Structure formats: structure tokens, C-alpha cells
Amino acid sequence: MPKQPEALRLVDVEPEQINPSAAADFVQRGWLFYERMDYPRAEADFHQAIAMQPGDLDAQYALALTLKHMGKSQEAIPIFETVNRMAEQLTDQVRGRMIRRLSTGHINQITQGDWNLAPDVWKRTS
Hints:
Blueprint: H1 23-35, H2 39-52, H3 57-69, H4 73-88, H5 93-112, H6 118-121
Helix pairs in contact: 1-2, 1-3, 2-3, 3-4, 4-5
């Protein structure tokens, strides 16, 4: 049986090889720029993805994370808060809870210097 070609891994692609035409393409290329610490280009791609599809939770989270890494933490906070609101609307409650904890942790780290997730993790819902 002939060997199947290996799937193209994202790390094997240069961002410049991607010509985005849809929001998901801009998110993909933005993560490639992010991975290479080219934060200004990542920020531009995530902004473009959000302009095309404002409800893209992944693009919103990626933009907030990028801004935080760029030292624009105060700009990142309202976007992380938007991520929290969007995550609450997910039908996959486990994914929503995980995303909220991640974004809340980033907000706490920016505002308090610590992830401080204990109140959220141990919160009981009856």
C-alpha cells in the first residue's frame, strides 16, 4: 500500500503563503504571525477577521492575547470581557467554561498580577 503523504502542519507554512479571503483564513495567518512573535501583523489579521465576522470567538480571544503580549494590556481587557460574554452563549458549556476561565485569568493577571481563578473554579452552581 502506498504511503499517504503527511498532512501539512501549520508550522510548515509561512504566513506570507496564505492569501486570506475569509475570516478563518485571517485567524489562521494571524496565529502564524503570533507564533513568530510578529505581533503587529497578527493584530492586523485578527482585527480583519473580526471586521469580517464580529462573532468569531477565536479571533476575539486571539486579538486580546496578542494585545496583551504587545504591552497593550488595557486595550486587551475589554476584549477578554467580550470573550467571556461570547463564551457564555456557547452551546458547549464545557468549552465555554474553559474559555471563560482562560480569559478571566488573563484579566486577573493584568489587573491583579495573578490569575486568581480559585473563586471561579470553586464556585458552586446549584
